[in-house]
Amino acid sequence: MFTIKYKPNKIEDFIGNKNNIQPFIRWLLEWDYNKKKEKCLLISGINGIGKSLLVELILKKHDYNIVNLSIDDERDKDYINTYIKPLLKTKKTFNGQENVLVVSDIDCGGNDYGFISTLTDCIKETKIPIICICDNKYSLNIKPILNYSVDLKLTKPSFDEIYKLIYKIVINEQIKIGKSSVEKLYEQSNGDIRFILNSLQLGSRKADGKNIQSTNIFDTTGKLLDMDLNLDEKNHYYWLAHDIHTLMIHENYIYHTLSARDELKKIQNLSYSADSLSDVDLFESIFDFDLSSYIALNSIKATTKCNKKGMIKFPQILGKISSINKNKREKVDYEKVVLFDKPIIEAIKKGKPKLKSK
């Protein structure tokens, strides 16, 4: 895997954002002096730019013990109060390493009930540095912590900075690709270094200069389901919107499975696609960015028994999640509503217009 093989092991090899490294280190080493007003460092920047990697390299360089709270953990109020808050009072480990809490993807906590409010309380009370990572610092979800955080925004690396790495890979791996194609690949990536590494490894040579963020996912999903496209072409389209394409394939593969006179053959085609998507679920459950290429390959594999027949549908699960989150926000604790009589409570439960209490 190129993402593993060419992952930097020291801060000197980190690509881009050199001007942000010293402010980060200064904040970390001077935390005890500034902790009254600067307890948290908020690191933001576009996806794939190396935010988590930068945190890992700097903390490793200065021998800190990392306490991780990722999106894979149960990040609700009870979990944080029970397991995380006690750790914030312990400055050092048994072997003398200083503790640091690193919270990833804080702008993706839509399903974590009470997450941001409890995290804000942690920042106020903490005895150790807290580092929060997000893609979008302007997300309304994280607004409560902004007053207690120092902002460190990472920008996408320049072409010259990334080209040094690409040149090294091209030489070492004997990849035939011209500089103009590399430039187009850089434009496509929008600064996502993982995208570039995965594209180089999986043989994506085509680039049309189209911005990755403005891709029409219905068109690209149709391309992925097109039986006339080869692996390289499908890989190219997959990475244009890799965060959503697997869900799009999952929603549509049944309706676009290759027809067969033999009903058993059709079931086998469906099973082949379903098995590939199951493998994707297993890889994604590990939550390791280095598995991105395997996720891409198995997502594309799921389309090899398909051919686009009609309209592409948007994933229903995303609409359901949106409804669930909305219902959570509007949930009423009926046990505490002591002024409402029974008919009013029943009306609220059925979703009727709110009625005034007597």
Helix/strand/pairing category = alpha/beta
- CATH architectural group of the largest domain: 3-Layer(aba) Sandwich
Q: List the quaternary state of the chains.
A: single chain
CATH homologous superfamily label of the largest domain = P-loop containing nucleotide triphosphate hydrolases
**Biggest β-sheet strands, sense, barrel:** 5 strands, parallel
Radius of gyration: 24 Å
Helix coverage percent of residues?
Answer: 40-55%
CATH topology of the largest domain: Rossmann fold
Shape: globular
How many beta-strand runs? 5
List low-pLDDT spans: 204-214, 322-342, 352-358
What is the H/E order?
HHHEHEHEHEEHHHHHHHHHH
End-to-end gap: 67 Å
Largest sheet, spatial ordering of strands: 2-3-4-1-5
Number of helices, where a helix is a run of at least 4 consecutive DSSP H or I residues: 16
Number of domains: 4
Range of strand content: 5-15%
Average pLDDT score = 80
According to CATH, what is the class of the largest domain?
Alpha Beta
